[in-house]
Amino acid sequence: MKKGTTYQSDTFFEQIKDSKKVNYRKSEAVKLLEALADEAARKRYPNTPQHYLAPRKFRDDTANALTQCIIQFIRLKGGQSEIINSTGRRIDTQITFCDVIGCQRTICGTHWINNSGTNGTSDVSATIAGRSVKVEVKIGADRQSEAQKQYQQSIEQAGGIYIVASSFEKFLTWYNLTFKP
């Protein structure tokens, strides 16, 4: 081995060292949610010793994790909440045939078709204290589309509540101000 030779694996590890990931720190709001969930589990399973119940863990650093935090919190507070799936449906257009030399070939392809839901629909639909609440989850640089802004306007005109949540802490603050626990 020659002195001073750089191998591909050496540069790989240097790149890993340079790209330090920021550690996630739970907010007090997420810790409160975990405590509420643990308390609910103890009530649900009163005969199970506390040390056998796994602690409930939540995060709010991704859109999916924040959505789960919001849904679980609303349910723990006696409301009804659900995720609205507006992805559409994948259609498989795979074709299998024999070519001129007798080999079987497959051409793969897929495409998406729109679902039958409303364009711009929110991520979470909930009923809290008899009020219709729609929650749009936006993390980081994610912003509302024009269809989502129109959907928000239609919900608010109908007397519903629409909120854009970027963290669980902000959602909890809004919830406490709106529904005065």
Kindly describe this structure.
This protein has one domain (25-179): 3-Layer(aba) Sandwich (Trna Endonuclease, Chain: A, domain 1). Helix 2 (28-44) packs across helix 3 (63-76). The model has no long low-confidence stretch (mean pLDDT 85). It is α+β, with helices and mostly antiparallel strands. The N and C termini lie far apart (70 Å). Strand 3 (95-98) and strand 4 (104-107) form a beta hairpin. It has helices at 8-18, 28-44, 63-76, 146-157, 168-179; strands spanning 80-83, 89-92, 95-98, 104-107, 110-113, 124-128, 131-137, 161-165. The strands form three sheets. It has a four-stranded mixed sheet with strand order 1-6-7-8. A two-stranded antiparallel sheet has the order 2-5. It has a two-stranded antiparallel ribbon with strand order 3-4.
Characteristic key phrases:
single chain; about 180 residues; alpha+beta; Trna Endonuclease, Chain: A, domain 1; 4-stranded mixed sheet; two-stranded antiparallel ribbon; 5 helices
